[in-house]
Design a protein that fits this description.
alpha/beta; seven-stranded mixed β-sheet; 39% helix; binds 5-S-methyl-1-O-phosphono-5-thio-D-ribulose
């Protein structure tokens, strides 16, 4: 993805150092942070310096690789496991984090010697990042045919290239169609409380030259009512075996509105987001975050500095579930790196266990 004309990935590794775009500072400042140790990278995931299911997956993989690089030869397995434990405790909802962590941990521990384990862990971290970028590109290719010329897409939170290593999930079909000259515009919900839509998605779409408009979360219903939305595409943090979806808080509301207004509701995600071990949405852990995210907002002031201001009365408490669960019955289709997939358990397990061709065998058309 280009930032002011220069190609970037969201997360990468140089030597033993993990490099991340600091997503807390966007859109006001573009800065890359360097994280020397596994513990630093884990903290960056927890503090949402890096966020978005795919990007935290890649970052977790690299953090695990750093854990292997730091592990002493005399206690290699023990130290790799302790680092993994710390990374596992950062954010509970996104499945990609656990998949990446496990694959790097296994690569490190399966190797015949600690030296080989270190090498294997770094190689796996890089491989996962490459897979993540390729999956996003493929989701773009698969999803773009669903977007006709002139279509108005509603998206929520940020499921673009900042939420992955590159390309993204929900925005990948938009980028794919836009690059091929199709006129597609995007309504971006601001996504309170952290405003990933207003801050990150709007910035990303601006960098890519995609026409877009930010709407208040509370304006979505009215936009549907006025016939201004042709389809919804969101990403996912975890998809249970029955097709229930955990995604950014507010996704469920949009799915209900889409159903009410007969608008297709697509969920874009790579294979690594599907969790066959979790039978349904009620079993997906939902992260609760600090009430400060609701009580305060961050933004740029008139003098150009970035500041945190309180919007609620002193003493009022808040609750802050970071994700909600959308039942499979409200999902029109999944747009995956293996094809467009019906939201039913058999199609999901064929796709996850059987590879891309299984998904391509279950196409659905717009509005099905
Ligand atoms: O809390 P965040 O910003 O990490 O949550 C991100 C989302 O919910 C996105 O919509 C999601 O990651 C899906 S796209 C990768």
């Amino acid at each position: 993805m280009l930032v002011n004309g220069k190609a970037y990935r969201t997360v990468w590794m140089e030597g033993g150092t993990v490099k991340l775009i600091d997503q807390r500072l966007l859109p006001h400042r573009f800065e890359v942070v360097s994280l020397a140790r596994s513990r630093d990278t884990a903290k960056a995931i927890k503090d949402m310096v890096v966020r978005g299911a795919g990007a935290i997956g890649a970052a977790a993989g690299y953090a695990a690789a750093q854990g292997a690089l730091e592990a002493p030869y005399h206690d290699f397995g023990g130290a790799v496991d302790r680092a993994a434990e710390e990374i596992r405790a950062t954010r509970p909802t996104a499945h990609d984090l656990f998949v990446a962590l496990e694959r790097v941990r296994e690569a490190a521990l399966r190797a015949p010697t600690p030296a080989a384990g270190r090498q294997a862990a770094v190689a796996m971290g890089n491989r996962l990042a490459d897979e993540n970028a390729r999956a996003g590109e493929r989701i773009g290719e698969v999803g773009a045919p669903l977007l006709r010329d002139g279509m108005r897409v509603l998206t929520h939170c940020n499921a673009g290239w900042l939420a992955f290593v590159d390309w993204g999930s929900a925005l990948a079909p938009v980028y794919w169609a836009h690059q091929r000259g199709r006129r597609v515009s995007v309504d971006v919900t601001e996504t309170r409380p952290r405003s990933q839509g207003a801050k990150l998605t709007a910035w990303e779409l601006g960098q890519a030259g995609v026409p877009h408009t930010i709407i208040a979360d509370t304006a979505a219903g009215s936009c549907f009512q006025r016939g201004e939305i042709d389809c919804v595409i969101v990403g996912a943090d975890r998809i249970a075996a029955n097709g229930d979806v955990a995604n950014k808080i507010g996704t469920y509301t949009l799915a209900v509105l889409a159903k009410q207004h007969g608008v297709p509701f697509y969920v874009a995600a790579p294979r690594s987001t599907f969790d066959l071990v979790t039978p349904d949405g009620s079993r997906i852990p939902i992260e609760e975050r600090s009430e400060d995210e609701v009580l305060y907002v961050w933004g740029r002031t008139a003098d150009g500095s970035v500041a945190k201001v309180r919007v609620a009365p002193e003493g009022s408490p808040a609750k802050n579930p970071a994700f909600d669960r959308t039942p499979a019955a409200l999902v029109t289709a999944f747009i995956t790196d293996g094809g467009v997939l019906k939201p039913d358990p058999a199609a999901i397990s064929r796709f996850v266990l059987g590879g891309a061709s299984a998904a391509l065998g279950s196409p659905v058309s717009r509005g099905d």
